[in-house]
């Protein structure tokens, strides 16, 4: 866990500055009992690497998890930068008032039971907004799970898992996608920069989040989960300023048949929200993902790899099936796998086994020549001007030999250390290749991070996905974003 | 716009085809040459001015979907056919509303649709797609939020699955893409500049050779809209 000092960063004058980079946090709703949902979140804050001050607030406890507890925010030695509330919704208005009077200007209201419940909840929510406006408080929520800022080791959400800091920034209307996904991200090697759960967007909304992530230098690709936009025109304005230089992938749900209404015109009756959002995203240069898998897969690749200049891809594999699957999916995704010139094929033949296929896909078939697949062939092919990127299948690391050592039980000699060192050496060179040629490499492998080689590649910026088609789709997303960027340049981007 | 004001004063929710086309024409959208004829005399004059073959459509503000009511006669080649058609059509119409729209017949196999819808969140949105009677079935459509710029219009046309129909195919010339783009932009402007306009259907927009012409149009009003 990387521990950084709390920084006094003002990214953009955004209401999220203090909420994502608080020097101090007042936490309302945790206790010494794990039965309390808030306790887990408080635990995450205290033990997750955050270096700022934490003030637990509790009506009875004097001490919580080793920290001095306060009866109310009024008793704090200083106004905290943000108050996190996991208290019953009957208690929130009073707590918010007290925050206001104390000078606390930021809040994260985790508590649910508001607009999402219906008109009565809506009124409660409006009341909160009233109180907040009165005191100049900006708040996230209600009905959200909070935030993650990996730069300062702050995680206010429920799940503890924090992979290393990375460059994917998330803003989501579902809390689960910024907390329950953490183990999934860890397995995928997806590092987060910041993650924001917007909840009901009573105050701070998706537009604010997009603006923040767009301005945040640590965030290189933005992933959005949207169920409905409160300020669609401002969203478009903000998005169009960001997408020419930073990729945004979004998933929109909630509009297939739900929004259709009876209409006197054909146009009216076939204009469902889904089609409109489609047009809107395209107009803004946002890539639309249709599944959550795609959303995060694409954001990961966009955050890590250079964009291809065109759509001509090299498929390199140590097995025929995955090679074919990859090439097949390429054709469905608007990518081409053009055969190599005879001259190049000759050069490939010269260094590959007899059983290998040199055309593109290159299938070297199973063998232990690590340098061949990780070094010689990538270098030989990626330097060619007629190719723009590589899809790679053929990672296998020390774990496979560990299995065999167990089985062999000393009856065969297996130099595991030698193999491990050799693998690491080759991988170290391999991960430099995209930067060297300014061309993307994306891998697939049916093993996860239990294979050290997979973990190494993921940790050094090369995405490794669990199936060939996912790697292809991610490469196609890179190509689509390149075209979006080019379109902006062509149209002069005078917005 | 006057046509809109008048309709609202009369408490109507839609403009007639003729009125709708006047609105489109005011924004530079190419429409069919057409005239209203209230009797045989006017019919003959209109037909002769426009030139055969013509199309006759029953004309009344309350007739929204004419194919369903059998009130269209196409490919009328001479005066006799015109008079017959006129009588057939006006047989089913109230006396004080007897009128037909006399329209030039546009020959073209490629039918497109251009529309406008006013979304409660996004405001006026322009639609483009493959048109004709299969629009609702195939739904090969794309949208953009108004105001549209030229590249928005060009991009949205390329997005439909059937976009190749706009190329030179089957002996037909390529569509005038710039003219199409102008139409899309203009429809967006109508929505932005007229809060009372709720929806627009231009269906079909027929390619006569390379040139798009609005052959039928419907404008739906909502005086409370904005």
Describe it for me?
The complex is a heterodimer of chains A (495) and B (226). Chain A is α/β, with parallel strands linked by helices and 495 residues long. Chain A has three domains: 16-140, 3-Layer(aba) Sandwich (Rossmann fold); 147-304, 3-Layer(aba) Sandwich (Rossmann fold), CATH 3.40.50.261; 313-483, Succinyl-CoA synthetase domains (Rossmann fold, 3-Layer(aba) Sandwich). Helices cover 41% and strands 15% of the residues of chain A. Chain A contains 19 helices and 19 strands. In chain A, helix 7 (206-215) packs parallel to helix 8, helix 8 packs parallel to helix 10 (273-284) and helix 15 packs antiparallel against helix 16. The longest helix of chain A is centred in the last third of the chain and has 23 residues, at 468-490. Chain A is globular and about 80 Å long. The model of chain A is unreliable at 1-11 (pLDDT under 50). Chain B folds into two domains: 2-30 and 108-221, ATP-grasp fold, B domain (D-amino Acid Aminotransferase, Chain A, domain 1); 34-104, 2-Layer Sandwich (Dna Ligase, domain 1), CATH 3.30.1490.20. The longest helix of chain B is centred in the last third of the chain and has 17 residues, at 177-193. In chain B, the strands form two sheets. In chain B, strands 1, 6, 7, 8, 9, 10 and 11 form a seven-stranded antiparallel sheet that branches. The two termini of chain B are 16 Å apart. By secondary structure, chain B is α+β, with helices and mostly antiparallel strands. Chain A binds chain B through residues 228-229, 232-233, 236, 263-271, 273, 275-276, 278-280, 282-283, 487, 490-491, and chain B through 13-14, 64, 113, 115-117, 119, 121-123, 125, 127, 135-136, 139, 141-145, 149-152, 155-156, 159, 198-201, 203, 218, 220.
């Amino acid at each position: 866990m990387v521990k950084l000092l709390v920084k006094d960063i003002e990214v953009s004058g955004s209401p999220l500055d203090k909420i994502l980079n608080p020097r101090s946090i007042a936490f309302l709703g945790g206790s010494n009992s794990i039965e309390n949902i808030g306790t887990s979140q408080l635990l995450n804050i205290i033990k997750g690497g955050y270096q700022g001050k934490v003030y637990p607030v509790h009506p009875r406890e004097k001490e919580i998890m080793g920290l001095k507890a306060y009866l109310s925010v009024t008793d704090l030695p200083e106004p905290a930068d943000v108050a996190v509330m996991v208290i019953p919704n009957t208690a929130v208005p009073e707590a918010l008032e007290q925050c206001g009077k104390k000078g606390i200007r930021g809040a994260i209201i985790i508590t649910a039971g508001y607009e999402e419940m219906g008109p009565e909840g809506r009124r409660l929510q409006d009341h909160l907004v009233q109180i907040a406006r009165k005191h100049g408080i900006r708040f996230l929520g209600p009905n959200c799970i909070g935030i993650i800022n990996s730069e300062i080791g702050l995680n206010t959400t429920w799940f503890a898992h924090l992979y290393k800091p990375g460059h994917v920034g998330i803003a989501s209307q579902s809390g689960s996608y910024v907390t329950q996904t953490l183990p999934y991200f860890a397995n995928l090697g997806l590092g987060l920069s910041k993650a924001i759960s917007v909840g009901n967007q009573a105050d701070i909304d998706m537009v604010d989040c997009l603006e923040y992530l767009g301005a945040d230098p640590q965030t290189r690709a933005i992933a959005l989960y949207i169920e409905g936009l409160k300020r669609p025109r401002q969203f478009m304005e903000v998005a169009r300023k960001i997408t020419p230089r930073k990729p945004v992938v979004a998933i929109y749900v909630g509009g297939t048949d739900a929004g259709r209404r009876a209409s006197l015109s054909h146009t009216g009756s076939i204009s469902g929200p889904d089609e409109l959002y489609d047009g809107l995203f395209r107009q803004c240069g946002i890539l639309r993902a249709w599944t959550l898998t795609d959303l995060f897969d694409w954001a990961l690749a966009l955050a890590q790899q250079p964009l291809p200049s065109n759509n001509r891809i090299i498929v390199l594999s140590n097995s025929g099936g995955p090679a074919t699957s990859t090439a097949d999916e390429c054709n469905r995704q608007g990518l081409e796998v053009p055969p190599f010139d005879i001259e190049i094929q000759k050069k490939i033949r010269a260094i590959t086994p007899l059983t290998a296929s040199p055309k593109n896909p290159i299938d070297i078939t199973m063998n232990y020549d690590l340098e061949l697949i990780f070094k010689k062939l990538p270098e030989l092919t990626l330097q060619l001007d007629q190719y723009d990127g590589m899809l790679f299948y053929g990672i296998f690391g020390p774990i496979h030999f560990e299995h065999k050592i167990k089985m062999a039980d000393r009856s065969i000699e297996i130099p595991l250390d030698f193999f491990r060192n050799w693998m690491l050496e080759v991988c170290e060179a391999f991960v430099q290749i995209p930067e060297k040629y300014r061309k993307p490499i994306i891998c697939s492998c049916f093993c996860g991070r239990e294979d050290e080689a997979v973990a190494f590649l993921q940790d050094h910026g090369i995405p490794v996905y669990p199936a060939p088609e996912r790697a292809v789709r991610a490469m196609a997303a890179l190509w689509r974003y390149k075209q979006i960027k080019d379109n902006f340049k062509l149209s002069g981007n005078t917005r | 716009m006057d046509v809109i004001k008048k309709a609202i004063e009369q408490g109507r929710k839609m403009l007639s085809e003729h009125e709708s086309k006047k609105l489109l024409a005011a924004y530079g959208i190419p429409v069919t040459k057409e005239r209203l004829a209230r009797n045989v005399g006017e019919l003959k004059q209109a037909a002769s001015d426009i030139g055969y073959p013509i199309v006759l459509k029953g004309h009344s503000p309350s007739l929204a979907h004419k194919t369903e009511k059998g009130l269209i006669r196409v490919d009328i080649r001479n005066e006799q056919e015109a008079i017959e058609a006129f009588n057939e059509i006006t047989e089913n119409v109230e006396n004080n509303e007897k009128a037909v729209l006399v329209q030039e017949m546009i020959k073209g196999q490629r039918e497109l649709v251009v529309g406008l819808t006013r979304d409660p969140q996004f405001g006026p949105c322009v639609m483009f797609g493959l048109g004709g009677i299969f629009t609702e079935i195939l739904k090969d459509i794309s949208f953009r939020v108004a105001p549209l710029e030229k590249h928005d219009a060009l991009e949205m046309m390329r997005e439909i699955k059937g976009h190749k129909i706009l190329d030179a195919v089957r002996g037909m010339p390529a569509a005038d893409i710039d003219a199409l783009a102008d139409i899309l932009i203009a429809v967006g402007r109508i929505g932005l500049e007229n809060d009372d306009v709720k929806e627009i259907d231009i269906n079909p927009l027929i390619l006569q050779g390379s040139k798009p012409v609005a052959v039928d149009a419907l404008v739906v009003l909502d005086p409370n809209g904005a």
